[in-house]
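Please describe the entry underneath.
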Amino acid sequence: MSSKSNHYQSKTAGVILAGGRATRMAYQDKGLVAYRDKALICYAIAALAPVVDQLIINANRNLNTYQHFGWPVVSDTTDSYDGPLAGVYAALLKTDADQLIVMPCDCPLIAANHVERLLQQQLSTQSILTVASDGTQLHPVFFAVRTGLRENLGEFLASGQRKVGDWLAQHSISRVDFSAEADIFTNLNTLNELAQLERAYSHIILK
């Protein structure tokens, strides 16, 4: 359980977004693709689980496989693969927490201390939305959101809109500057990118 959320008398949930089609990765289920002999979803779980009070996996395929990781699995409310916000909305419908931390399944360099920083700023500033930045641009699928925006997000999706950036632009946001560690946002969209990252970090021993 997050000591920070407990300190602020606030409950925090986290969702890992693993519900995409992964068209650039030959339609493989990205969360289950192996990076350094572990499924990508394992790195996201390791980053979120120590920080949040409730962890949710958003997936639209291979649901039984995802359930074996030991956390609740929720699918989008539609079967049309409407993008990351559809997964966020599904998680918001599932949780009774005060805020939800959102992170992708394909950024294995994001660790628990990065999630802690995001949550700490969300709680200390009492922001509606807190979004990670590399100092130059936002990384809009790594953010914390007050669950009171549940209805607003549902209306946004119902209007046919899908872009995360467009939804974020409708609200006042707090930014967390990760420019000193910008490589944590390295995301894996293709098998070639996966191989490149494995070579780049082959000298680091996994714990």
In short: The mean pLDDT is 90. The chain is about 35% helix and 20% strand.
